[in-house]
Amino acid sequence: MTQSTLSNERWRLSVAPMMDWTDRHCRFFHRLITQNTLLYTEMVTTGALTHGDVTRHLRFNREEHPVALQLGGSDPADLALGAKLGQEWGYDEINLNCGCPSERVQKGAFGACLMREAALVADGVKAMRDAVGNAIPVTVKHRIGIDQIDHYEFVHEFVDTVAQAGCSVFIVHARNAWLQGLSPKENREIPPLRYDVARRLKEDFPDMPVVLNGGLRTAEDCLSSLAWADGVM
Question: pTM score, two decimals?
Answer without folding.
Answer: 0.93
